[in-house]
UniProtKB/TrEMBL annotation:
<comment type="similarity">
    <text>Belongs to the PanB family.</text>
</comment>
<feature type="binding site">
    <location>
        <position position="118"/>
    </location>
    <ligand>
        <name>Mg(2+)</name>
    </ligand>
</feature>
<feature type="binding site">
    <location>
        <position position="86"/>
    </location>
    <ligand>
        <name>3-methyl-2-oxobutanoate</name>
    </ligand>
</feature>
<comment type="pathway">
    <text>Cofactor biosynthesis; (R)-pantothenate biosynthesis; (R)-pantoate from 3-methyl-2-oxobutanoate: step 1/2.</text>
</comment>
<feature type="active site" description="Proton acceptor">
    <location>
        <position position="185"/>
    </location>
</feature>
<keyword id="KW-0808">Transferase</keyword>
<keyword id="KW-0479">Metal-binding</keyword>
<dbReference type="GO" id="GO:0003864">
    <property type="term" value="F:3-methyl-2-oxobutanoate hydroxymethyltransferase activity"/>
</dbReference>
<dbReference type="InterPro" id="IPR003700">
    <property type="entry name" value="Pantoate_hydroxy_MeTrfase"/>
</dbReference>
<keyword id="KW-0963">Cytoplasm</keyword>
<dbReference type="Pfam" id="PF02548">
    <property type="entry name" value="Pantoate_transf"/>
</dbReference>
<keyword id="KW-0460">Magnesium</keyword>
<feature type="binding site">
    <location>
        <position position="116"/>
    </location>
    <ligand>
        <name>3-methyl-2-oxobutanoate</name>
    </ligand>
</feature>
<feature type="binding site">
    <location>
        <position position="47"/>
    </location>
    <ligand>
        <name>Mg(2+)</name>
    </ligand>
</feature>
<feature type="binding site">
    <location>
        <begin position="47"/>
        <end position="48"/>
    </location>
    <ligand>
        <name>3-methyl-2-oxobutanoate</name>
    </ligand>
</feature>
<feature type="binding site">
    <location>
        <position position="86"/>
    </location>
    <ligand>
        <name>Mg(2+)</name>
    </ligand>
</feature>
<dbReference type="InterPro" id="IPR040442">
    <property type="entry name" value="Pyrv_kinase-like_dom_sf"/>
</dbReference>
Amino acid sequence: MKRLTVPAIQRRKMGGKTADPLVMLTAYTARQAQLLDPHCDLLLVGDSLGQVIYGLPSTLPVTLEMMIAHGAAVVRGSYHSVVVVDMPFGSYEASPQTAFAAASRIMAETGAAAVKLEGGHAMAETIAFLAQRGIPVMAHVGLTPQAVNALGGYAARGRSQEEHAKIIADGQAVQAAGAFAVVIEGVIEPIAIALTNTLEIPTIGIGASAQCDGQVLVTEDMLGMFERVPRFVKKYGDVAGMIGDTAAQYAREVRERSFPGPEQTYQPKA
Ligand code: KIV
Ligand code: NA
């Protein structure tokens, strides 16, 4: 199976509505990528790995080295999906030039097809700088977790007229700058629908709307790895329960000395 490309993803929205919604999930490890890849169009190496993998309190402490190590693992584990790697906080905001230095390392050292960065109008110049130099950029507007300190939390955005207008303008700005797609996170549904209906680039929703051109979720959230998840997450599994039950059975068998059994034990040749 040949790997999808960024232009192929963009073509899925030719002539208005995406007939075939884009499926995207996060992946952080090679084996996880391998299991998700056949079901997805895009895999996102999200900076959410800060909380999910490293137990950090937010995405802010995530480093370029972490993103590159996990990005390379996900590229090695996948054959079909377009792999997109998040640019971590601090690696792209200062100038288009610093963003290019970080993004080119991500592209060269992971083999990913694109980067993602947070911000709308304020990041338009940077998006254009990267896109014009051969680095496809996925934008991310609405609730942007790297701005949690400025936003004051992770509540849904766009409830005021002013903020509603700003998010719409952000979506238009990233398209004009040359982003190939845009993640719309944590906004009231009319904003996601309006952007999906007016933009020519695919919109990928998370906490947005089923009308978006695609959807993304954090895989561990969707698998049921965590007790507490945002309202926009649907738990499709109970992997936390499965891991707990499996570990409990192992612990029981070790304590009663029934593991290892004869099948797991070597004996001298008779
Ligand atoms: O880091 C991440 O996982 C993300 C998605 C949830 C959009 O940015
Ligand atoms: Na992210």
